[in-house]
Sequence to fold (203 residues):
Amino acid sequence: MASQKISDLGAITTVASGDFFPIVRASGTTNQRVDIGVLDVRYAASASGDLAHEALASGNAALVDAGVALASGNAALVDAAAAETTANTKLAISGGILDGQLRSVVTALGANGSGIPVASGNYFTATLSTDSTVTFISPYPAASYSLAYEVEHTGGTITWDSSIKWPADTAPTLTTGKTHLFMFVTDDTGSTWRASSLVDYTT
Fold:
């Protein structure tokens, strides 16, 4: 059979299952070509294109959802950081043990420990056996601060720093050979200490 151009072949006006473009088929003795105008949706490239657009739209929607979730997560992190900052400013613990309650740190100053290093705790013990002046050693841990000072008083006279203020401006009368307990509070970073006392314990 002589060679023919596809354009010379007779056109197929309908397509059937199993026909593929641009494959030609023979009808009897006449070769035929699939005409572009009669291709149905099975052969339309737009079908796969539509599917691609649908997949792309779905992917974009998923990205939007992921972006919203990420923004929500970032907002939660910001809120958590703000809450942590607030908590840190509300509860400053230094040297304490937080286990259902806040326990005092007991610091033993030893013999003649009349200089109280307030930054190292909030409960101090000392043995005073000679004339001693009770003072506070800075730095102070906070503007508002309180402490207890337990003294085993074996001898000497105890005097008080001028920043210490007693009720009615009168310091307690102390007996040697006894144990005394003093409480001090400041709300101005140690410029003034208001004091109270429980004195003359026998043990």
